Amino acid sequence: MASQKRKDTIDWTEYFMAMAFLAAKRSKDPSTQVGACIVNEDKRVVGIGYNGFPTGCSDDEFPWSKTSDNPLETKYLYVCHAEVNAILNKNSTDVKNCTMYVALFPCNECAKIIIQSSIREVVYMSDKHAHKEHTVAAKRMFDAAGVKYTQYKPPHSQIVIDFTEIDWDSLNQVPATPKKTNPIDDEVSMSKLSLKEGP
Ligand SMILES: [Zn+2]
Question: Which reactions does this protein catalyse (predicted)?
């Protein structure tokens, strides 16, 4: 029987970044699935989001295209980034002093909203658009506003969630049910006991 605590667990940062990646899997964007997870100072998740069109703007009617002769037929004018959705989805009064975990370095528009919502730190995974103006502008604003940003290097390249790996027979969070005894045996032993303790 295992009595020592398990050591092969994921740490907090891995856990929150993994949540951002899991949320990303909800995105219908054919080219870029991004997720964001906001965590408060008590390490509680207060918001999660992924990139998608606003409520009521159907994934089947609005364009997911990145290029078109008509800008109105590209996704850029319509899509809400994961960072914004995570902030708007918050289940707390505000996200002051929170940390945001996000797959891609935020763009300048998200950076503005991150700063204005008083998020204190951004932990990101990829900075693949580092050379682009919107990332340069985002970093300039983060630096000016004192928002810390840190690139996350995961200790594991994969975290596998396998619904079939659990051995349900050995899984037990509550103590074993005591064996049922025959109530008649109980009465007998009780009467023996009272006889013994009698005058
Ligand atoms: Zn953005």
Answer: dCMP + H2O + H(+) = dUMP + NH4(+)
